[in-house]
Design a protein that fits this description.
mainly alpha; 6 helices; 0% strand
Length: 158
């Protein structure tokens, strides 16, 4: 049952993050994450062992890259859910709003120091046209997913 909860919580929290990004698009014109780039990167990782793709935007479009990107996105959210579950089991976190914020803020190191750099955007998105916007978008998106994960674990009685 725990694995089922981890998967459901990962999916629902990822959906909350996607909904958040759509609201930002409607209200402020901030574009949501482009999951086709993630799909392209993932296919290159699997097919060519290419983890560092600094010119990913110039790589040829790969068939079904958007669908693959969405699957990777939701898979990562399930892994975040599993990580939060492990932190609950180790009594490091409890399923609470504030621990959700802490988890979300801690998880932002993934895009800032792993994903943005390997896609050629630099640490903290320094090579993008608007590093502050990219970094703050990551903070808010990861905070939304962290809070969602925590509150969903709370809902399921953890």
């Amino acid at each position: 049952m725990e694995l089922f909860h981890i998967i459901i919580i990962g999916i629902l929290s990822c959906f909350a993050m996607d909904l958040w990004q759509r609201i930002l698009k409607l209200l402020f014109g901030i574009n949501p994450s482009d999951w086709s780039v993630v799909g392209r990167w993932f296919v290159l990782l699997i097919s060519k062992g290419k983890i560092y793709s600094p010119n990913i935007d110039n790589e040829a479009v790969i068939k079904n890259e958007l669908s693959i990107g969405w699957l990777v996105h939701y898979g990562v959210a399930i892994m975040y859910s599993g990580a939060f579950f492990m932190l609950i089991k180790q009594q490091i976190f409890i399923a609470s709003f504030f621990d959700g914020i802490k988890f979300g803020l801690a998880s932002v190191v993934v895009p800032w120091f792993f994903f943005m750099p390997i896609l050629g955007k630099g640490f903290l998105a320094i090579k993008t046209p608007s590093p502050l916007l990219a970094c703050s978008s990551a903070i808010w998106s990861h905070t939304v997913i962290g809070i969602s994960i925590a509150l969903l674990f709370q809902f399921f009685g953890y």
